[in-house]
Design a protein that fits this description.
344 residues, alpha/beta, Urease, subunit C, domain 1, TIM Barrel, six-stranded mixed sheet, 14 helices, 25% strand, globular
Length: 344
């Protein structure tokens, strides 16, 4: 028996997110049709978000470390984050991560790419936190090849923290994702990171012209985390320059620094970078999905039905004349009226 759902309203359809009055027909977790027709409904239907870079393990200590530098906060092995993770027991860590995942789910995130500390036990802890939830963790293990093998890939801290060629080779042989931090504090680790031919780079705050040219030539995607970069004081990523050269996705980074809200990340990015609202929405949806190899992020036939419904008649959104701009710069969790996730 077919499981069917119909959502009516204004649909932000396709890669251009063109507003279409109509309905989305969902059958067995897949978008079966997008139909233009008069509905007179006020709902806004858009793809659910893909958060392309997180560290959810530090959910145990939100807003810790005020006034500390990036190195003092997160540098392995003795940054504040790592000390907190070592001090927390597994039950506490799993419970804190689960609360963050529940928030992401309720705020319209269908999947997130997590750089998972703690080796194999760290990957298993995130699996336990996600059990029974629809939000889907793409787990990039750290610290050991075994963590990559247990998860969905490897998440390297940065070329200055290790050589990583062994981990890169093993990840490629396993056919899994390899991501690496680069250019967060300075530009010196960008070329070594690019030399590893990663599947994606994270941050690239200090990318220079020669690095931008290499990114363009290699077509390696970049995940930017502007709010995190502001909090840690390292600068602002050149979002527009990167977007001219490659696929750019959005991530919220460490939970203990920022809430894992893609609404907040979109609004901040749209207001600090010279890029269109449509491009920012792509960064929050289809671009992250493409990096992760997921079949979501767009409203079109054949995609997984990972959808977010906003109340277009909320006090916050009523009267919006440019819906895409309103979704990106104005909408928030309070405007969410429904979340439909496939729960891969």
């Amino acid at each position: 028996m077919t499981d069917s759902t119909i959502l009516d309203g204004t649909v932000l359809a396709g890669r251009a997110f063109d507003p279409v009055e109509g309905r989305v027909v969902v059958e067995d977790g897949e978008i079966a049709a997008v139909e233009a027709q008069s509905t007179h409904g006020s709902d806004i239907i858009l793809p659910a978000f893909v958060n392309a870079h997180t560290h959810v393990g530090d959910s145990i200590a939100k807003e810790a470390g005020e006034g500390l530098s990036l190195t003092e906060l997160v540098a392995p092995p003795d940054g504040l984050k790592h000390r907190l993770l070592r001090a927390a027991d597994r039950e506490e860590t799993v419970a804190a991560m689960r609360r963050s995942l529940r928030f992401m789910e309720s705020a319209g995130t269908t999947a997130f790419l997590d750089f998972r500390e703690g080796g194999v036990p760290g990957v298993e802890a995130l699996e336990a936190a996600a059990e029974g939830l629809a939000v889907d963790p793409v787990m990039l293990g750290r610290e050991a090849v075994a963590a990559m093998e247990r998860g969905d890939g490897f998440g390297a801290s940065g070329a200055e923290d290790g050589e990583f060629s062994r981990e890169r080779t093993a990840t490629a042989e396993a056919g899994k994702l390899f991501g690496i931090h680069a250019g967060e504090v300075h530009s010196g680790d960008i070329n070594p990171a690019l030399d590893l031919d990663p599947d994606f780079l994270v941050h690239m705050v200090h990318a220079e012209e020669l690095h931008l040219d290499r990114v363009a030539d290699s077509e390696i995607p970049v995940v930017v985390c502007p709010r995190s970069n502001l909090v840690t004081g390292v600068g602002a990523p050149p979002v527009a320059d990167l977007a001219e050269r490659t696929t750019v996705a959005l991530g919220t980074d460490n939970v203990f620094l920022n809430s894992p809200s893609m609404f907040r990340e979109m609004a901040f990015t749209a207001k600090m970078a010279d890029v269109s609202a449509r491009e920012v929405l792509r960064m929050a949806t289809i671009h992250g999905a493409e990096i992760a190899g997921l079949n979501c992020g767009l409203i079109e036939e054949g995609r997984d039905a990972d959808l977010l419904v906003l109340d277009g008649d909320s006090d916050n959104l009523a009267g919006a004349e440019n819906l895409v701009r309103a979704v990106v710069r104005r909408a928030g969790v309070a405007d969410v009226s429904d979340v439909l996730l496939t729960g891969r």
